[in-house]
Amino acid sequence: MNPPVFLDTGYILVAINTADKFHKRAQTAALSVRPPFVTTEAVLIEIGNALSKRRWRTLGIATLARFQNALDIEIVPLERPLLAKGIGHKLSTFTSCQG
């Protein structure tokens, strides 16, 4: 079995937005990857936030529903230890770039 492919917010938003200049690249990339997929509740929150304006809301709701109903996408829950680890990683990346 292949290792899971992580689906991040940026990729998902580009993949569903046909007007995005990188949409065709996202479509091409989608042809080369196969399940299993993994994402996090944090990514789903970001997607919901990005698509919360009235113009995008229907697309946002449909996208989130697809993720929640997909059998080949694992959604990792947002738990405090995971959040702390992610924040720690971001902080260490940020401070190492300051040097």
Summarize it.
By secondary structure, the chain is mainly alpha-helical. It has helices at 9-16, 23-32, 41-50, 54-69, 80-98; strands spanning 5-6, 37-40, 73-76. The longest helix is centred in the last third of the chain and has 19 residues, at 80-98.
Can you lay out the helices and strands and say which pair or pack?
Blueprint: E1 5-6, H1 9-16, H2 23-32, E2 37-40, H3 41-50, H4 54-69, E3 73-76, H5 80-98
Parallel strand pairs: 1-2, 2-3
Annotation keywords:
99 residues, mainly alpha, three-stranded parallel sheet, 5 helices
Report on the architecture of this protein.
With 99 residues, the chain is mainly α. The chain has one domain (5-98). It is 64% helix and 10% strand. It contains 5 helices and 3 strands. It has a 3-stranded parallel sheet. α3 (41-50) runs antiparallel to α4. The longest helix is centred in the C-terminal third of the chain and has 19 residues, at 80-98. The radius of gyration is 15 Å and the shape is globular. The model has no long low-confidence stretch (mean pLDDT 87).
